[in-house]
Amino acid sequence: MTDDQKQQFTRKISNANKTGLIVVLYEMVLVYIGDAKKALEVQETETFHQEIKKAKACIKELQNSLNFENDLAMNYFEIYLYLRRELSKADFSGNRTALDNVCSIVTDMHDAYLKISEADISKPIMENAQTVYAGLTYGKNSLNESLAGQDLDRGFRV
């Protein structure tokens, strides 16, 4: 994951509600698997193992956040177990097919949650995060960012 992607995910997380956080975790899994595939192609085994480990950690976080009072939670739990097994299989054998399989499932789940998140109008989880406005200004292909409310305290509100 590049530094730019880390910044983008940090911004998304700071402005996301509960459904949006799930979307971000799915996106992070896809980025980590993409990075693992690239490492596999150039035979960087240590990087490959690290990227698989990060993808598994994201899926573990999704698994840990399930609400088992909901009937669907057990179905999601089984899917996440399967995804983690497939990633372990890929990690052990360098099996690209297993990575493609995980990507396919996670992409479908991401797309479904993306539609759900568009309808979710709940407030962001982090209440006191800075607002970032980005746009193309001052020339072709030039992205300038500005922070609104820079003088405000950031962090948790007590």
Structure classification: mainly alpha
Order of helices and strands: HHHHHEE
Which term fits the overall shape?
globular
Strand content: 5-15%
Rounded Rg: 18 Å
What separation lies between the terminal Cα atoms? 34 Å
How helical, in percent, are the residues?
A: 55-70%
**Which parts are unreliable, with pLDDT below 50 for 5 consecutive residues or more?**
none
Helical run tally: 5
Can you put this structure into words, describing what you see?
- The protein is mainly alpha-helical and 158 residues long.
- 65% of the residues lie in helices and 8% in strands.
- It has five helices and two strands, in the order αααααββ.
- It has helices at 3-15, 18-41, 45-64, 73-93, 96-119, and strands spanning 131-136, 143-148.
- It has a two-stranded antiparallel ribbon.
- A hairpin with a 6-residue loop joins β1 and β2 (143-148).
- The protein starts with a helix and ends in a 10-residue tail after the last strand.
